[in-house]
Design a protein that fits this description.
The protein contains one helix and 19 strands. With about 325 residues, the protein is mostly beta strands. The chain has a single domain, classed as Jelly Rolls (Sandwich), CATH 2.60.120.200. The strands form three sheets. Strands 6, 7, 9, 10, 11, 12, 13, 17 and 18 form a nine-stranded antiparallel β-sheet that branches. A hairpin with a 3-residue loop joins strand 3 and strand 4. It is globular, with a radius of gyration of 19 Å. The two termini are about 35 Å apart. The mean pLDDT is about 90.
Length: about 325
Amino acid sequence: MHKVISFERGLSRFKPLENVVVYDDFDLGFNGWLDLTPNFVGPGFQQQSSRLDLGSWGPAQLSAAPMRFAASHGSMEGTYSLKLPTRAAAGPYEQPPIAGSMSTAIKRLSLNDPDARYVQLEAWYSYTPHQDREGLGEEDIRAFGMWFDIQDGEHRWQPGVRYVNSVNGELVKKWQYWQVSDGVTREQWTGLEHGWEQVGIDALWCGRRYGDGSADGFQWIPGGAQQLVYNESPDKLNWMYMRLTVDVVAREYVEFQSVDKVFDLRGLKATLSPKYAGITQLINPVFYIEAGADRIVNMYIDSVVYSTGATFPAKRGAV
């Protein structure tokens, strides 16, 4: 008897670790990805107190990427991608995100491999504003990225990456990693006297932001300036690749790849927060986009791989 090992051809576009936990092609449906929603646990099913109405975000949806002039754009290979559309809303960069200015998609999982030291999230994606007005509109996309929400036996922590595309209409085009600046207090983090978020948790809407694109919850990746492929019109999508690898034993970053550029992040630590009740062994991958103008902006995710491994190759080039 001969044993034959086969795998989905689409996996050849990725660089997974030893154990592929998730391979999601959105031509096959939502695959368990859904909106990041608040906890409706207050009186009358009210959400927990926060300075941002999490229920206001644009809902994730399966999309054939219809465009103003290109009809249905389709996905990278097939018809449907997972579309994250914001609503037509944005405030100044230095202020907390306003209602409707973001869209997120999350997949709720658990840490299932006791021998895994590394976790990795990869995706093929694109982004563009809704073509409801003349011009390129690139500056109307403020930021996008992905992160892991992890809780082990001791800490909750959220390693991730963020592409700062623009600040108040001016293009920046630099990558950041999720880490809280020293000395940030709980009140500064939540913006409330009794906010429920611990420092280091939910940097997407917590912490102060500054006019140069920096923020309490994010640090610039060294050498992280990068021109991504936006194309020459909002109705043209170019699919791009990104990959983030994290060491869950050392609780630090390992490597980030964006298109053909690989960033060595070894030695950069994630911010560790106290454990939350009821979520030990949680690991949730999340994608997000934020608008920079009163205009719908979209992130399209063609496919995603989440993998784990006991080892990480000493040298990995671009895909």
